[in-house]
Amino acid sequence: MIDKKIIEQCLKNDKVSQKKLYDSLASKMYAVCLRYASKRVSADDILQEAFIKVFKYLPTFNFSGSFEGWVRRIVVNTALDQIKKYAEPFGDIDEASSDETLISVNDAIAQLSSQELFALIQSLPEGKRMIFNLYAFEGYSHKEIAQLLGISVMTSKGQYSKAKKMLQEKIMKINHISYEHK
After folding, report:
1. What pLDDT is recorded for position 92?
2. What DSSP letter does each residue of 93-155 carry, written as one string?
3. Residue 162: what pLDDT?
4. How far, in Å, are 81, 127, 149, 152 from residue 89 at the CA level?
5. What does the alpha-carbon distance between residue 87 and residue 81 come to, in Å, rounded to a whole number?
6. CA–CA distance from 54 to each of 8, 69, 113 (Å)?
7. 164: alpha, beta or left, given left = phi > 0 and alpha = psi -120 to 50?
8. Res. 3: pLDDT tops 80
9. Domains plus CATH for the chain?
10. What is the pLDDT of residues 98-147, one digit of tens each?
11. What is the helix (H) or strand (E) element at residue 181, kind and residue range?
12. Among 9, 19, 14, 31, CA closest to 121
């Protein structure tokens, strides 16, 4: 948790406090960056750009909510902005494809290390990975994701469903469990 004094000193451009703030949040925010970036160098760029924005917009933080949550939102938005620059547009999907029933792979997931699971998520195509991260890790609703990315709610649901299915297939393959496509 960031001390209010550190934030106040950062507002006065105190370099020592700025370093303390950065050091206290950088590793957590880097983990967020890695979920969105396909390469570590991209995650580094996202983190750097996000912290530039944090310090630029620090005067707008009103101390009413979680500072870490405020920073996380900046990091996620920075990652999304960078991805949007290079990403191909999402295609619309049929409503029926988002309603497909997905199999349970809880036992298979339990056998994976967190690094293996992270690598599988990173192997998803960029658009699906972005929506999966926003929904599963960041807690955004499909409506919020649709607004953020300029897509329909059904496209968000469909891309999430497809990402989840791709992960299930990869997990089943790793654990040598047969999987039937529906």
Report:
1. 45
2. --GGGGG------HHHHHTS-HHHHHHHHHTS-HHHHHHHIIIIIS---HHHHHHHHT--HHH
3. 94
4. 13, 8, 10, 12
5. 10
6. 13, 12, 33
7. alpha
8. yes
9. 4-86 (1.10.1740.10), 95-174 (1.10.10.10)
10. 333 333 445 555 556 667 777 888 889 988 998 998 998 888 899 999 99
11. none
12. 31
Joined tokens for residue 68: 């870490």
Residue type at 8? E
Higher pLDDT, 52 or 80: 52
**Which residue matches tokens 């791709």?**
166
> How long, in residues, is the chain?
182
In what helix (H) or strand (E) does residue 64 lie, and over which residues does it extend?
none
pLDDT at 39: 81
Packed helices 15-36 and 114-122: angle between N→C axes, nearest 10 degrees = 70
